[in-house]
Amino acid sequence: MSVIDLAIHPKAPGLQKGRAFPIVIVGHVDHGKSTLVGRLLHDTDSLPAGKLEQLKAVSEKRGLDFEWSFLLDALQVERDQGITVDTTQIWFTTQRRRYVIIDAPGHKEFLKNMVTGAAQADAAILVVDAVQGLAEQTRRHAYLLHLLGIRQVAVAVNKIDLIDHDEQRFQAVAESVRNYLADIGIEAAALVPVSARTGDNIAVHSPQTAWYRGPTLIGALDAFSARALPIEQPLRLPIQDLYRLDDRRVVVGRIESGRLKVGERIRFAPLGREAVVASLESWRGNAGRHQPREEAIAGDSVAFTLDEDVFVERGVLASHPDQAPREASRIAVRLFWLDKAPLKAGDRMTLKVGTTEREVEIEAITEALDVESLSSADATQIERNGVARVILRSRRPLALDLYDSQPRTGRGVLIRGPQIAGGLVIEEVLQQAAHAIVAVDSSVTARDRVAVNGHRGGVLWLTGLSGAGKSTLAMAAQSALFARGRQVAVLDGDNLRHGLNRDLGFSDADRAENLRRIAEVAKLMAENGQIVLVSAISPLQQQRDHARTIIGADFHEIFVQADLATCESRDPKGLYKRARAGEIAGFTGISAPYEAPRAARLILDTNRHPLSETVETLVDYALRSFAA
Amino acid sequence: MQDDLDQLEAQSIYILREAYSRIRPLAMLWSLGKDSNVMIWLAKKAFLGRVPFPVAHLDTGLEFPETYAFRDRYAREWGLELIKDSCPPLEATDPTLPHNSRIAARKTLGLKEAIAKYQWKGVIAGIRRDEQATRAKERVFSPRGDDGAWDFRDQPPELWDHFAADLPDGVHMRIHPLLHWTELDIWRYIQREEIPVVPLYFANDDGKRFRSLGEIGITFPIDSRAANIEQIIAELEVTREPERAGRAMDHDSEDAFERLRVAGYM
């Protein structure tokens, strides 16, 4: 085997362009990951000028021989304690392509940082100490690589100089690593005997290991292929947000898989509404170099309009109607747990898949995995850094895929408090379990209702000028709250005049009676556990105070604010025009007064903020105010 | 078909839209350098031509005249809601810091004041992992304590582009949409998109140009003949000099930059 002359030469300039191939370096603490990174940079001539001298100085200052690891262990605590705390990234270039190395800490304490780093990689180098062999974190890291979806793994059997470059001893370690990886479903692309400290078999074959016939470590890296974008898979487009552009509603999100074309019909799960993509929108930038697009593919962040005004919000998942995702409220997942506090059956937290967030309950822990022996056991709780199979249950269904068929929408995270507490892949969709049926009759107490509904009832009384946006807001908030499993209803002043209040006119007395009846109905519904959105101009403070007296503490006065000129220009029902023409007497804002609330609980300014924002504010307020 | 710049752009747009959807009130820091110009450009793409939050220049009064001229021109042309409050004076900074760091620390204090004044819950900053080793350890969504401090010992996990955005009271989020870009990516994107930059980046007749642009007195030009974007790209492809070599504040002491960042610097 001749020594291959690789990499210790200036690279062709074109290689600096193009996507950097992300690789993660994992393994047990002290097996030599950070040193390996330093060696890779040095041997590919990728170190910045002055860096070597700087590292020498830093090493000497701490009374150490030259430490490659200081290249990446930039934090003082890392240098002083000699361990990597957090993941980091650095670039290098071989003769084939540019790489970004993600260095992940090997210390058990910092597994969440290892996961953060590894989740971004297309391939991995698993570093194993030739003297110590497989250690606890080697196994855990390898298992997590598999769960994180990384299938391309090269093994660096490091410190080969410490076992005297001995073939038999290398083969023994390599065999045990190969077997463990095979057990968890990873086929190692190469097992390379290396010494990060001396450079054996990193960029060039070492004369010390003439018996070794495989690739150098860099040769093994260069043989990996970049992860392909899932363009040919079914369309999955989690919706991020809605913007208003001039008078058009624009839906935005990133295509996780498949293609999206103008003119296609798409379906939004879990609500199931459908519409046709009318246009793909973009900002043109300079010089008109952007042509209007007709198609977008996986990886693209898109903005599009629809031919109809169907209800869409953040969290729904767009697909083609004939290739829709699953909808489930009970799923079996495989998860890794990262939170300091253990995971227990019965715990409640937020599940996030794509842009959907749902409150879920941990129905059961069905198995806890011992990564050492790969055996499963029963467990009532999962400690930090543990791996388990768990059943999750939500009150309302969410749109998702199985990980095996659609990885990008078949995985998610659990959020507890402000942080991500675990990651998971979805293995199975389960039937909804039979719930205990609670008889709904007069003997049901408010507490029973809260227990079943998961929230309290109450009234959000939306007041404001005609055209301020009360009904639009109420309807949008109703949909959003309904989608989150809330018992919710709208009482619209105009609609009620067709039935309950059709005997009433617009005299002062009739208007007062109109509002009294709405308040009484809202009260009944709120006592029944509902969140009631009342949409009524209710122009006078005294009228609203009366409603408050009827409803009590659960009355929330909300001011939907927009100046008269704006309302008049919107004029959704043509009423301002008729009022100006003198056709309607006593029209609020034109010929009758409107008294703005003195102390509204919430002000929603529809002049200054887009609908999506005011709806979100209102929904957040409702979720907070009526939490169980 | 997407090339690597399309992929970088799409990822940044995704991050900006996540931030805008989940964290309000939100603001973007505009240092007037090449990276933050790219960031504003990406925001215009993400929000279809309009930057829907204020853009803040933490003004030390020490920018180059060309930089101020650039700010005033493009704030207008790009239709930005510009905030340009002055940073507190040098005397207000931590006196134990090295001198050059103290000049930079004025921006940290300026940012703290602005967060208190405008009640921002999210601040978008254009830092990149390849600039500096402590920045390489950053998260895309990086929570800061009530004093703006970065708890690098215990950063939250972040995976598969899921960003936890709920914040306890008194905490704000730094959002880093350019974290995955390199210096060369930035220049190639500036070239492709024809994004304007301060002319100080281009070599003058004396063979000097700024590779990294900061305050007068702590930022120095490098020797270079690169007088246009194409030449800058060619230079970066072969250079071995680090990008921030001309930034005095990075080199005061081994941990100078880490101390700045832990205290809340960008």
Strand order of the largest sheet of chain A: 2-3-1-4-5-6
- Percentage of helical residues of chain B? 25-40%
- Biggest β-sheet description of chain B: 6 strands, mixed
Task: Output the structural class of chain A.
Answer: alpha/beta
Task: Give a quick precis of the structure.
Chain A is of the alpha/beta class and 628 residues long. Chain A is 25% helix and 28% strand. Chain B is of the alpha/beta class and 266 residues long.
Kindly list the characteristics that best describe this protein.
heterodimer, A: 628 residues, alpha/beta, six-stranded mixed sheet, six-stranded antiparallel barrel, 15 helices, 28 strands, 25% helix, disordered N terminus, B: 266 residues, two-stranded antiparallel ribbon, 7 helices, 8 strands, 35% helix
Give structural notes:
The complex is a heterodimer of chains A (628) and B (266). With 628 residues, chain A is of the alpha/beta class. In chain A, 25% of the residues lie in helices and 28% in strands. Chain A is built from 15 helices and 28 strands. Chain A has a 6-stranded mixed beta sheet with strand order 2-3-1-4-5-6, sandwiched between helices. In chain A, helix 9 packs across helix 15 and helix 11 packs parallel to helix 12. The longest helix of chain A has 20 residues. The radius of gyration of chain A is 31 Å and the shape is elongated. Chain B has 266 residues and is of the alpha/beta class. In chain B, the strands form 2 sheets. A 6-stranded mixed beta sheet of chain B has the order 3-2-1-4-6-5, covered by helices on one side. In chain B, strands 7-8 form a two-stranded antiparallel ribbon. In chain B, strand 1, helix 2 and strand 2 form a beta-alpha-beta unit. In chain B, helix 5 runs antiparallel to helix 6. The longest helix of chain B has 20 residues. Chain B is globular, with a radius of gyration of 18 Å. The relative contact order of chain B is 0.18. The model of chain B has no long low-confidence stretch (mean pLDDT 90). Classes of the chains: A alpha/beta (628), B alpha/beta (266). At the A-B interface, helix 2, strand 2, helix 4, strand 7 and strand 8 of A face helix 1, helix 2, helix 5 and helix 6 of B.
